[in-house]
Amino acid sequence: MRKLNLEIQDETLDFKSAEKMADSKAETELGDCIRLGWYNDELKLVAPADLLGSKEEPERGIVAFAESRGAEIEVDVLGGRYRFYYKKFDD
Question: When comparing pLDDT for 25 and 59, which is higher?
Answer without folding.
Answer: 25
